[in-house]
Amino acid sequence: MQLQTILNRVEPYKSFVYETPRFADDTLHPTIEVPIRPRANGRPVCSGCGKRRPGYDRLPPRRFEFVPLWQIAVVFVYALRRVDCPRCGVVAERVPWSNCKSRLTTTYQWFLAGWARRLSWKEVATVFHTTWDHVRVAVHHAVAWGLIHRDLKGVKAVGVDEIQWRRGHHYLTLLYQIDEGCKRLLWIGRERTEASLRKGLDVLGEEFCKGLRFVCSDMWRPYLNVLAERAGDAVHVLDRFHIMKKLGEAIDEVRAGEARRMKQDGYEPLLKHSRWCLLKRPENLTDKQTVKLDELLRYNLQSVRAYLHREDFQRFWEYQSAGWAGKFLDEWTARVMRSRLLPLKKVARGLRAHRGLLLNWFRAKGAISAGTVEGFNNKAKLTMRKSYGFREYETIELALYHQLGALPQPKFTHEFC
Ligand SMILES: [Zn+2]
Fold it and tell me: Which protein residues have their CB within 5 A of the ion that is ligand 1?
């Protein structure tokens, strides 16, 4: 079988012919060159208006990288024709395998982008003997195509989340679709201000906001304000993951303060190595941590009391009705407010202030999937970790859309990847 036969099967072009391939002799890495010529009776297509126009002249041959075969690079070699177009002037023709802005064929770009979802960009570049920048260009192309062609109809539930990036207080705002059957990243922006969330909702459009039935966020004031303003008809739910995270942070603060005081007063360092015992759920503890927790529970420590309040609060999520959950919430916050655990009291005050939003959790049960925001939060962090070396915001944005956006792809004759 000849290579042309395979190419005509996997990548057929009506108006062009693959000629006899040959090994290139001037390249470092083994390379097959596939010359391409236009069919004799075909007129070139103008790249400006897409109409068939008379030919004008030909440019020098150009190389277009295609999907490698058995670790042998494959390049198409073709001399573009220029057309004499009455509308666009003398311009280069349009060819089906490339937009001519890049050295990579469109198929090869999709191929690299597909692998960049499974491996780090650096690994993709190494495995396929290409550069990190070519992988970036390929992902950029895939994301741009996907964002234009994605369907935003029928989105009923969204979650807003913030994620820290770089050192210090740098945040990104992320908007997810969290409908039961369809979960994906919809938008990313810099900062976690009112302006950033507003910008995201602007991009998604007024029609989109009107269709929302449920919105989910943490207690961050700028998000609450913008969601009330733009999606006022939707049921606003405070996300379980974020609330439990807040409680965890409060426990940590109590523990750190207490450990400091005990050290100053010359007590034994009882709280040493206790951080994870108090932060993790009991079922997730290691054996050693369980022993440590048992030991801690024998003392009447502030950290332990804070821990027990948090464990107690887990019951809130188990209620079936908002009425009983509300009663529990009032009792729980009253108990915490009587304690002297300042960081925990701060959270309790916040929960009290957002009682209505908190109880909406029970109204949204079943309509939105509870763990989605947390799941996405973890995946986003993983993507950012895997892409170490991404210093620029634009690159992180690309990587996150590519990994979490569930973006569509065109239909291909052959699936290379
Ligand atoms: Zn034209």
Answer: 46, 48-49, 85, 87-88
CA 93 to ligand 1 centroid distance, Å = 9
Question: At residue 275, does pLDDT exceed 90?
Answer: no
Question: What's the CA-to-centroid distance between 313 and ligand 1, angstroms?
Answer: 68
pLDDT at 332 over 80: yes
Question: pLDDT at position 283, please?
Answer: 79
7 CA to centre of ligand 1 in angstroms? 29
CA of 38 to the centre of ligand 1 (A): 19
Q: What is the pLDDT of the chain when averaged over all its residues?
A: 89
User: CA-based diameter of the chain, in Å?
Assistant: 94
Distance CA 315, CA 362 (A): 13
Predicted confidence band of residue 369 (pLDDT cuts 50, 70, 90): low
Q: How far is the CA of 57 from the centre of ligand 1 (A)?
A: 15
> Model confidence at 204, in pLDDT bands (50, 70, 90)?
very high
Cα(320)–Cα(322) distance, integer angstroms: 7
Could you tell me the distance, in angstroms and rounded to a whole number, from the CA of residue 52 to the centre of ligand 1? 8
pLDDT at 368: 75
CA pair distance 304, 309, nearest whole angstrom: 9
Burial of 129 (0-12, 13-18, 19+ CB in 10 A): middle
- Amino acid sitting at position 117: R
The Cα 59–Cα 380 span in angstroms is 45
- Cβ-count burial 48-81 (b if 16+ within 10 Å, e if not): eeeeebeebeeeeebebbbbbeeeebbbbbbebb
pTM for the structure as a whole: 0.84
Position 389 pLDDT exceeds 70 = no
Mean pLDDT along residues 142-151: 96
- Distance (angstroms) between ligand 1 centre and the Cα of 257 equals 72
What separation in Å is there between the alpha carbon of 146 and the centre of ligand 1?
27
